[in-house]
């Protein structure tokens, strides 16, 4: 039996890149897929691929950055297939600028699609699952978020994108802590793959090889996402997975490091020596991308 047989899955930004790879992989494992993309033609094309392969899918082009619109995506899944089991928050855009040149519009657009988009659809899905749990139904639901290495360690020229992705990492931790009581697990991933966004910045690095293993193929990330969307992953929540080529790892998040205790209020003129001592003991953070 397929690992996601009859699981009902919404994937945002599924008209291309990683989202398309996820949609095809979920369908191949028996899932019923709502292919969401603001570009309806792209969504329909992916649905066509799934149907040709004998799978089940429908297209959706509602805007994930609009709360009421996001509700329609969840409603379509429920009305079409009779329920909802998985939300994969994948949609994203880039508006790369050095911070000194970043405009308010650049900031708002990226934060809206990434961070607010994650909130909008997950909010409606969570409310649906909570009501199911309240009436005694068994809920085995999944939220799979998309952060980025840029969000985990920063990226030159991407302060808006990095901030949004860092917000998603923190959101994942809080969602996992709060939603387990309803039968919902929440995990995130920071994938390195060739997509419409990354090709703009890393075109030469990520181009498809003429032969051999395609290291940056989006299909390399899909198996983890499908497994996380299955019932088999019920014990895994609150984790940040990094996937690149054939590499799979779990990110180790912020923790309290070296500490000094004054046992009272610090004086301003004591700060310099104290901070110097702490910095000398701390494990250096990973470098910001591009620095």
List keywords for this structure.
291 residues, alpha/beta, Rossmann fold, 8-stranded mixed β-sheet, 10 helices, 8 strands
> In sequence order, what are the helices and strands, one letter per element?
EHEHEHEHEHHEHHHEEH
Strand order of the largest sheet: 3-2-1-4-5-6-7-8
Counting structural domains, the number is 1
Q: For the terminal residues, how far apart are their CA atoms?
A: 48 Å
Summary?
The chain is α/β, with parallel strands linked by helices. Helix content is 43%, strand content 14%.
Overview of the molecule:
The structure is a single chain. This protein has 291 residues and is an alpha/beta fold. It has helices at 17-28, 40-52, 67-81, 104-134, 149-153, 159-179, 196-201, 203-206, 222-229, 271-281, and strands at 8-11, 32-36, 56-60, 86-88, 141-146, 184-192, 240-244, 247-250. Helix 1 packs across helix 9 (222-229), helix 3 (67-81) crosses helix 4 (104-134) and helix 4 runs parallel beside helix 6. The mean pLDDT is 93. The longest helix is centred in the middle third of the chain and has 31 residues, at 104-134. Strand 2, helix 2 (40-52) and strand 3 form a beta-alpha-beta unit. It has one domain (8-250): Rossmann fold. It has ten helices and eight strands. An eight-stranded mixed β-sheet has the order 3-2-1-4-5-6-7-8, sandwiched between helices.
């Amino acid at each position: 039996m397929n690992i996601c047989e009859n699981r009902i899955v919404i994937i945002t930004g599924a008209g291309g890149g990683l989202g398309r790879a996820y949609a095809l992989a979920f369908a191949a494992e028996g899932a019923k897929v709502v292919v969401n993309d603001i570009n309806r033609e792209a969504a329909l094309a992916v649905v066509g691929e799934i149907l040709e392969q004998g799978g089940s899918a429908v297209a959706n082009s509602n805007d994930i950055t609009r709360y009421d619109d996001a509700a329609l995506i969840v409603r379509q899944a429920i009305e079409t297939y009779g329920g909802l089991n998985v939300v994969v928050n994948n949609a994203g855009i880039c508006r790369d600028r050095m911070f000194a040149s970043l405009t308010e519009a650049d900031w708002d657009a990226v934060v809206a699609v990434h961070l607010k988009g994650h909130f909008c659809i997950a909010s409606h899905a969570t409310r649906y699952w909570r009501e199911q749990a309240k009436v005694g139904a068994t809920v085995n639901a999944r939220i799979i978020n998309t952060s980025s290495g840029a969000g985990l360690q920063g990226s030159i020229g991407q302060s808006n994108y990095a901030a949004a992705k860092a917000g998603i990492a923190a959101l994942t931790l809080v969602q996992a802590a709060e939603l387990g009581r309803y039968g919902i697990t929440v995990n995130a991933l920071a994938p390195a793959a060739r997509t419409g966004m990354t090709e703009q910045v890393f075109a030469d690095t990520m181009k498809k090889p003429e032969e051999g293993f395609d290291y940056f193929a989006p299909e390399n990330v899909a198996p983890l996402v499908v497994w996380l969307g299955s019932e088999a992953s019920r014990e895994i929540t609150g984790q940040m997975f990094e996937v690149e080529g054939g590499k799979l790892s779990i990110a180790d998040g912020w923790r309290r490091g070296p500490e000094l205790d004054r046992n009272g209020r610090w004086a301003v003129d004591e700060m310099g020596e104290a901070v110097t001592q702490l910095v000398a003991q701390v494990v250096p953070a990973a470098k910001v991308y591009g620095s």
